[in-house]
Amino acid sequence: MPKHKKTTKTQNPFKSQTKKYPKRDIFALILALAAVCFFILNAIYFLTEKDFLLSMLEQQSPDLIPAFQSLSIILPIIWIIFAVLMSLIIYKIEKKQYRWYSLLVFSIISLFTFRIECFILGLIASLLYIKNHK
Q: What is the reported pTM?
């Protein structure tokens, strides 16, 4: 009698492959994506409340209004660009193409865009990526 062959993974190409991720990586990904969301939400909020901030600044010191008007256009655009760049860095780290310190460097640079919460979340996320992405 002929023996039956055992089925292998290559015979069923449509079977889903489950990969177990460490909890540190999941938590780091959540923190990094929260930093991206903060960049986007802060840009949207800043653009929607620009008139209120302008009227409040006009009461305090009217000589700063021209500087604030140019800053109110440039700063949200910078935040959105940083959100896109940070999401690309996170994607590359997850695909193991970039190392953990690229997120750390980008988080430090984001501190200069006046987003302290994004700096802190990116810093913690990059520190969590150290162990699994050496």
A: 0.74
